[in-house]
Amino acid sequence: MHKSNARRRLLAATLLTGALTASLVGCSSDDGGSAAEPSANEAALGTPNKATGTPVTIGFISEGKSQTIDTTDEIRGAKAAAAYANDYLGGIGGHRIEVKSCEALAQPAVATDCANQMVQAKVAAVVGPTPGELDSLVDVLSPAGVPLIVHSGTTQKGLSSPGVFSLTNGTAYFAIAATTAKDKGYKKTVAVSIGVPAALGPTKQVGGLIFGNAGAGYTVVGIPPGTADMTPQISSADADNYFVLGNDSFCTSAFKAIKTTKPDAPVFAIDRCISIGGGSSIPNGYNGINVATALNLSPDAPDSKLNSAVLAKYGDGAKFGALSSAGYAPMLGMIKALNANKVTDPNQQTVMAGMKTAPPTEYPLTNGIMFQCNGKQIPISANICSADGIVAKANKEGELSDYKQVTIDPKLYATPSP
User: Is residue 372 in a domain?
Assistant: First the structure.
């Protein structure tokens, strides 16, 4: 009974992590200047293998474009992945993929309408990035039996509702930071968190559990948003390294205080802390900051070269970067998993079953991270299909390089025994 209660508390804290993630996604509507023109390279596409079977419709829901956001490259990335699969991977089981897209505009009512459109169109599945209105989609698609396959989804309903597949681990940054601290021998990690409940809750509870399981020391300092000078809080913290969580403006103030008061201390941060050119007020900019991320967008990586070639041929003007990748990766990941499972008649039922029973499949743009949606990857949710993550180094301007896969032990998520 006590162990069950502990699991529920961990899940509740994890859901707050999802709330934080969703709120930060809503504030990040571009690539921060990091997107690049794709490079045309037909050889990277491989050997043609055209789909000739009857079409199968796959939905894709993104926030899209409004007066305050523009994530349309997510849609272009997803459509490019489908077009590439149609010409080079035989579509899905030989069937040509047609993408039906819809823009949710970061509004729950519009997201609900998008989901209803997908049900009416009888799509075989709906794919998405990290939806800001995930629960609105789940409320419609899960009862209708429509598989919802997203890059990351860590809201309550996203983690617990049937038929939802989160291909990456949206809670991985805690485990990446803890694993790094353990491997580097850091004894005193101080998490500097934006002082709002959606951030402080999981930073204390999920972070505390994971660092504790890793055998690494861990304390949390919550600082109110809008605090320009964090020097008093940072200088008084007993730390040999820092883990910063928040949006880019909060993180900039934290980095400035850390590099001013403890310039030699290692700094770890979530990827939403970094914006290209945003480090001008930080001593030596973002240089040397360790960044947790889900994708490896190094231009020299094999996956990136393929993605760039796909965008150049099929991307309709999409740039190579975080936005297009958030559409491209889950769409291509789903296609690869279903083809690996030899699904030949794609519909809602076969896609649902196919995702659950597909063998381990490499997630695009990770250069080696595998996902498998069999419900056994990490103990907090059967809907999360992968445990591992990626850490990279930022340069002064905020560009990332030196990407490395971090293998995460699922036991880091284990709740204490009663």
Answer: yes
- What's the chain's length in residues? 418
The helix (H) or strand (E) run that includes residue 359 is none
**Which pLDDT score is estimated for 373?**
98
Q: Which amino acid is at 18?
A: G
Query: Per the domain annotation, does 11 fall within a domain?
Result: no
Q: Are residues 277 and 328 in the same domain?
A: no
pLDDT tens digit string along 37-90? 998 899 999 999 999 999 999 999 999 998 888 999 999 999 999 999 999 999
Q: 25 lies in a domain?
A: no
Phi, psi (deg, nearest 5) at residue 58? -115, 130
Q: Give the number of domains in the chain.
A: 2
Coil vs helix vs strand at 335: helix
> So what's the pLDDT on residue 19?
47
Phi, psi of 105 (to 5 degrees): 60, 25
Buried b (16+ CB within 10 A) or exposed e, 300-331: ebebbbbbbbbbbbbbeebbbbbbbbbbbbbb
Domain-located, residue 379: yes
Residue (of 143, 153, 144) closest to 61 by Cα position: 153
**This model's pTM is above 0.70:** yes
What is the C-alpha to C-alpha distance for residues 382 and 384, in angstroms, rounded to an integer? 6
